[in-house]
Amino acid sequence: MTETRDERAERGSVAITFWQGAAIIFGANIGAGILSLPYGARNGGVLALVVALAIAGFLTTVSMLYVAEVSLRTREPLQLSGLARKYLGNVGSWLIFAGVVINGLGALIAYASGSGSILADLLGISPLLGSTLFFVPGVVVIWLGLKATGRSEQAITVTMLAIILLLSAWTFIGPGIDPANVSYMDPYFVVPIINLAVFAFIAQYTVPELARGLASHSPRALPRAVVAGMCATGFLLALVPLAALGMMGRDGVSEVITIAWGEGLGTSAYYLANIFALLAMLTSFWAIGLTLMTNVLDRFRWPATGSPRHRLAALALIAVPPFLIATVGLAGFVSALGYAGGFAGAIMSIVPVLMLRRARVEGDQEPAWRAGWIAHPALQVTLVTVFGLAFVYSLLNATGLVPQGWS
């Protein structure tokens, strides 16, 4: 069928490059999670954190690649909840939508809380004003859409990497790392760290949006962008706790790590560390907010283009509640992340297994790329088991029934 001029214009308006796709994955992951990991991992140690990151990162990447194949098998550009509706019916759609919303709102609550605290400390303003100043550019870029988000993510990601590599080198060369701070490991704490690591890696909801920007002109770049973004994420998620915990030890880290880390290195490093924190939150806010908004549009079948009132309503639904919850102090920073990671991780990592199986039977087209050995049934069972247990942990944590020291 011949493509119309309007269809070509729409396709061109959302087309992104491989590096922009990888940057969106990286930006979605490098946000509140990286700022809370050193504090969350302080009892288990860096080695326990590396184990948790390896498990959560690998399995989450596998789940994301399942979503990539499902997206490439589907002719219509659907979001995660739309794909679930197509292949699993309304129950599956509402489950995945709930996972997207819980994870997304949990993240945005953490960004509102964390950004307000950091800007208040840096500028001497109120946390409420700080959160407001953070949300304005965040909402503007989300409103502008996928292409603006991809370009913004790519530009700021380079700056973030430069800052964090500089701070890490500063730590290693300057104060140095105390081997005792990084060599201890308590396996007892691997489980709660995995629950937090799940949140730091979870970005399945961004994959269909990336497919919309890559599938039309470079479909095989989609899985490569996912893997590249996740590998870069894993490297940084390990590097920051290594440097911060190695320098300060378990008793010296703060809930938002850049505050204590920057103070430990001096005034200049303090400002650099907190600029990194704000940029990390901002890039993650863009990626998560955009995909959350498009999932709202998709789930309620509102027009994604040509109807500013529907787009504004969706934007208000994803931005206003987390802002209000965070600014009235109803959710702590790390606790918000832990609950979101467990609840959303189970849904958004297990449902893609079911979608992949159904899409291989009922998909619209042969995909340009297929998940190979990673789609083995044994690996699918492992994925469901691990993230199912993470869900159970979150339930127990929410009711205060977790073992002593895990909460």
Strand and helix map with partners:
Blueprint: H1 5-14, H2 18-29, H3 32-40, H4 46-72, H5 80-123, H6 127-144, H7 146-173, H8 179-183, H9 190-201, H10 207-214, H11 221-248, H12 257-265, H13 267-299, H14 308-327, H15 333-362, H16 377-398
Largest sheet report: none
What ranges have pLDDT less than 50 throughout 5 or more consecutive residues?
A: 1-13
Number of domains: 1
**How does the overall form come out from the CA principal axes?**
globular
| Secondary-structure class | mainly alpha
Q: Bin the helical content.
A: over 70%
How many strands?
A: 0
State the end-to-end distance.
Answer: 57 Å
* Rg, Cα atoms, Å: 20 Å
Could you give the order of the helices and strands? Answer: HHHHHHHHHHHHHHHH
Q: What percentage of amino acids are in beta strands?
A: under 5%
Count helical runs.
Answer: 16
CATH H-level superfamily title: Amino acid/polyamine transporter I
CATH architecture: Up-down Bundle
Q: What is the CATH top level name?
A: Mainly Alpha
CATH topology: Amino acid/polyamine transporter I
Overall average pLDDT: 82
